[in-house]
Amino acid sequence: MYDFKFTDIGEGLHEGQILKWFFKVGDTVKEGDTLCVVETDKVNAEIPSPVSGVLTKLGADVGQTIHVGETLVIIDESGKGAPAPAPAVEAPKTAAPAAPEVKKEKTEEKGAAVVGEVVVSDEVIASSNEGFENNEAPAAATSGKVLATPVARKMAADLGVNLASLKGTGEHGRIMKADILAAAKSVPQASSNASAPVASAPSVSMAMPALPKDGVRRVKISKLRQAIAKSMNTANALIPSTTLMDEFDVSKLVEFRASQKDKLLEKGVKLTYLPFIVKAVTMAIQEFPVFNASFDHETDEIVYKDFINIGLAVDTPDGLIVPNVKNADKKSIVTLAKEIETLGAATRNRTVKLEDLSNGTFSITNYGTTGIKLGTPVIKHPEVAILGVGSIYKKPIVENNQIVIRDVLPLSLTIDHRIIDGADGGRFLLKVKELLADPMQIFLFLS
Amino acid sequence: MIIGKFDPLKQQRFTVLDETGKIVNPSYEPKIDEATLLKMYRTMKLARIADIRALQYQRQGRMLTFAPVQGQEAAQIGTMAALDKNDWISPAFREHAAMLYHNVPLENIYLYWFGNERGSRVPDDVNVLPVNIPIGSQYGHAAGLAYASKLLKNNQQVAVTYIGDGGTSHGEFYEGLNFGSTFNVPMIGIIQNNQWAISTPRRKATKAATLAQKAYAVGIPGIQVDGNDVLAMYAVVKEAAERARKGEGPTLIEAFTYRLGPHTTSDDPTIYRKNEEVEEWKKRDPLIRFKAYMEAKNLWDDKKEAALDEELEAHVKATFEKVEKEGPVVSVDEVFDHTFATLTDDLKAQKAQYIQYVKETEGK
Amino acid sequence: MAEMTLLQAINTGLFEQMRKDKTVVVFGEDAGFEGGVFRVTKGLQEEFGELRCFDTPISEAGIVGSAIGMAINGLKPVAEMQFDGFMFNGYNQLAVHAARMRNRSRSRFTVPMVLRVPMGGGIRALEHHSEAIEALFAHIPGLKVVYPSTPYDAKGLLASAIQDPDPVIYLEPKKIYRAFKQDVPENEYLVPIGKAKVFYAAKDPNVTVVSWGAMVHDAVKAVRALEAEGVRAEVIDLRTISPIDYPTIYESVRKTGRLIVVSEAVKSFGVASEVITRVTENCFLSLEAAPARVTGWDITVPLARGEYHHMPDVKRISYDIKKLMAFKL
After folding, report:
1. According to the model, what pLDDT value does residue A140 have?
2. For chain B, what is the domain count?
3. How far is C42 from chain B (nearest CA, A)?
4. What is the pTM of this model?
């Protein structure tokens, strides 16, 4: 059975009206015979039969509309049941028999587009509700989203803080990063596991006891100080820490530095002990990668990092800020020296960039500049360790049963005792010590 | 009947008044009343003096780029004198003489060239569109203005439009003229053939021997006229206007004239044309012959000339000084408020933002 | 009230405005006797005569240029560019004159004209018949641009456009000229220029979808199908491209936190860019994800056979919405 569909006759038309049939059901047609004349917007088109056979169905009657894609005729090509050959009505080859009355009774428009095909359909869509009494008032009283920058939202997500529960201290109730940090120390609800000590964060009432009213002077702390206070609170609440201390002979390092620093100063590089310490730390990290990791207490996972970004605490007039040197393991002593100085200067005049303050993996704090030797530095969450560097000083020590004067460097290593035990801390510190005691060791083991 | 008698295809150019002021075609001498003749002469003088002064002010750094009209006064004033007060001008950018005759104050003209849109805000009863810089587009506007006249004013209002010889190469010249012709609207197209399009001589604009013959392409009459002959221009335009008002459609008139000055004050014509040519054309200056004509009619003399010069110089000077003082003042309202009839909310916000910025940074 | 297609709504609107105001004239190539190649202006010449509804020479610059002159001198011309791809010759007059005449003359001369342009693809036609260049009009100060997506809006916006004292570009989404019908009041009503419409709103929406023209319907189809997957959208139909109704968009984004713009135009430098920029400027603190857009590519609109690569369809719209919704902080 050949289902001959009415097609777009190439004028971009969509429908037509049957003007005349030259055959009826049961007639035999030959391929090429004109089956009918269809009136369209532009032309009256003769439709030739595509195949030979017997007409078994006419898709529309004279006067009816046929749309593109609908069946025009069905022809049985099988040759069976072919009745007597078609009688007199021979399809006239020349056109326009149905010409005279181009009756313009438009019941509906013809699908007109001189070029292209415009879909014609009788589908009805919903009425517009405009200008009519507003039946359903649109869902009023919708509370908008909380206001927070995308960066703040990410921080909140990372720290497990629910923004909707916070009261923002910013303009229009905007939730600031500080608000999030403050909230971060409290319980991240949802599925915590037993190993999360956070559950036991002090839920004590934080009310201040009354202070005397006379003889006191209240000074509001700066935004930076607020941030530091909150950060310290977080670390304190989250991390059970312990500090290992040692001091050891670095005379060779002192000598080496003394021999190099003038030459380097001529080249504009200020060589301190810090670059050496940073390098030694990165090498120790390579041997003990857990010191460079983070601990995800929500998933009980240690998050190891491919990058080693060493933070260096900088004392600024407003407070302590910790920028970090990216990929310190891949940089030379001299490069480290330069970067440390640049970062320090930028931090002190508060031009340091946000990216330099983020993504640190291990921090070093140098209180030696004030003459202090030993301390118990506070870990910078989400890091898991911090190295405190005291001032190098001359001390009498015992060597070969003799008393000798040597330059000693005091170091204090605070570790996150949830994932690092004392012995590990000791081994790490020992490694650092080995490298600094003889700077040639740095050169020998550098990879 | 002039139009139709002088066939541009036969190189026939219509003229009445020769260089010396003598009437060479007495049967075509238009009958113009005294008051109008005097107004015509006055305005030609005003246009000339204002032009010369503007060039000087520009060289003094007091005026911006200016397009002088020197040499073309007759082509323009002859046209406008033959039309009614309510007729439209759809100009290009070198029609100050026509504008002055058609009641645009000199102050407006100077203000526009001084760089302030206020200059284009002509009085409510003056039907002159603003200076039109994109060449050719003004012809389409004229066709539209005239179409509206056809529909609403029974063709009684004529729209005259101007273009230069170079401009006739532009598609929009043809499209506008064709539109006006197809719909048979009361339009008059003037071509000021001043022989130069900046540095391009007339013969390089088109191979057609005359520009007036382009009328044939759109099926309307075209005629080439001595553009420095104010009487000939008057006579032809008078006829063209009658045709238009009778519903007979547009006419294309080529005014054969000369640009005595540079294209604009930023142009140096000595680079591309010979001084001899300029000197030749100076002899054909429209003012010379018209003055002679007026004198022959006992309407003018040297004493009157001197007095007029003095009066116009003072007027031009005072006008420019006023423009110089008030011209630089452009308010924030002015640059925003005329974007739409009513500013959109966003534009209002933008304006407020800018005002805020100005306030905050005042004096800094 | 009568059920009509978008095309019929425009035709009805033209009859209405021409009967109401004798200064309204309609013209364009083949727009007079035949009623336009899409038959939008059909019947007008019969009723109003050749002076008010007429065929023009093939002369886009002439059409727009004379429309400007007519508008200045007391008529309300509704001129037509036969297809989007052919409007460029008329664009000169639009940009250098129609848009500027009011400002240039400090409101002494104004141009209350409408320019109708069938716009957009999806009709399998020849080259230059399927452009989506609304941004080119919107970028010119002094022009207003409207783009209805339903029969109701088409008639209401047409009335507003004709009655507006400044030039309005009236874009007609030819793909859906006759794709469906809607109830349209037969009396005069105005859809204001510059007001968008919340075309479809799920309860408690979590994403704002902004679109216009034919794309609105594909966007709605996409979001309805995605409701099963938790996507609850507010679909905003701009209706006016310039000036855009930002408050409606902002109100929605502040509720949902996510925005996606659906446009069939090429990707870059289009209307979508403007919407996203404004939302970023004004709803930054409410955003949960970067605003997104579903658009064509920065390529020439392909001919009929290859067009599907370029024009967003329900499938691609759904895909991009899902991608947007999947973004978690």
Report:
1. 39
2. 2
3. 21
4. 0.69
